[in-house]
Amino acid sequence: MVNSHIHSKYSVDSTEEIDDICKEAINKGLTAIAITDHVCFWHHPNGLKTKDLIDCKNEILTLNKKYNGKLKILFGMEISEYHFNPSYEKQALSVGDIDVVLSSLHDDITISSRKLERRLCNNDFKTFSKEQIVELIKNYYKILIDIAKNSDYDVLAHLTYPLRYITCRDKVKVDFKTIEKEIKDILQIIIKRSKALELNTSNAGSGFFMPNEEILKLYREMGGELINLGSDAHVCQKVDLGLKEGKELLKKCGFTKYYYYENRKPIIAEEL
Ligand SMILES: [Zn+2]
Ligand SMILES: [Zn+2]
User: How far is CA 97 from CA 19, 28, 33, 154, 249, in A?
Assistant: First the structure.
């Protein structure tokens, strides 16, 4: 089993040592993991410190020797909010020897009808009108389409991130028709650019996957094949969170395998 989305102490929202993540991964039967720490303005407000990325890369090099034959450790990063500061991406990629680049959008969405907390997770969507939710989602995907088209990534992460808070946490239902066109546009871009889609299992405990079954099936029907699996773990214990369930879901949606990236090239992780 391979987990392609894990954060370590090189992200400001995690304190985990990569070595501890490796030990836990081996205990839980994983064969490879990708360390994908945050690169974005929110995490590096005073400019990107490439030293952190280089230290992370070097540590991974050492740990690959230590765990040779037991676990493959891949060096990656999660670049977010690309549109705000494309220079962060350029700087981050200049570090070199990267296995996988995840691209994502978390925060800084604005709507005309209401002032939002800049971090999406800090908004209480129960207090939003239906129109405000629709406006927010439309604006989110407008930016994500731009990111999917223009940034230099391998895997588009947690495609339905706003629903993690709107639907999974705050229990506000969003009709798929609201986002259908935008989702189709993004999937089309991913397929055309030979990028991968991520199945993010961080909320698998609540039966919530990003994206859900309907979107995964749609991606498959549209010819999408490249799919990665990641638990978005920020603590060691979550190194295998939802991966088994994720694999089952992929199988159900018509996927026969899933992938991971090494040297920014897709490799079959497992047949399903
Ligand atoms: Zn993320
Ligand atoms: Zn993440």
Answer: 20, 27, 16, 14, 32
